[in-house]
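Structure ticket #2291
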Amino acid sequence: IQDDDGKIIYGGEAVGYVIEFENGFKIYHAGDTAVFSDMKLIAEIYKPELVMIPIGDLFTMSPQEAAYACRFLSPRYVIPMHYGTFPVLTGTPSKLRELTKDIKDMEIIELKPGETLT
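Resolution: structure written out below.
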């Protein structure tokens, strides 16, 4: 990212977490990030079954980029996040679902604010 004078604007570091439960189930929470190639490495090393991925399309990846991330990560379940809370966050779970309909054995779980998953 550059400002009007061409100076590079620091965009921060990608921060995500892999959480492994006692039963071996693994979650990858991607945080606020764009798609990046090391997601393939995360998939190879940790093999997360559930991925929480941002789709807002401002400050984070778009549904199109999230679809690439889903292909990199090969999860069984995907929970889209960081969308719909402000008008500028235009990405939607339905768009992600449309862009990943060709991925077999992957389920997109759309949670409402405050809803839990067990």
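Closing remark: DSSP finds three helices and five strands in the chain.
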